[in-house]
What does this fold into?
Amino acid sequence: MGINSERDVEANLQIGPTDQGMVRIYVESQGVEIPMDFTPEEAEEIASEIMAAAKGAANS
It folds into this structure.
């Protein structure tokens, strides 16, 4: 499955700080839970990539 492949799957996404000073992106779908922890610096880099992708999508 690639970035442009459509799927009919629902997922829950939560993003927030942990009590350990990390930023957690938590994805849950079809009974599978995926917690991903990032340093604040890594989270800012991810946020920048999301913003760039949003701008690219808006311009296409």
User: Anything to note?
Assistant: The mean pLDDT is 95. The first helix runs from residue 40 to 58. DSSP finds one helix and three strands in the chain. The first strand starts at residue 12 and ends at 17.
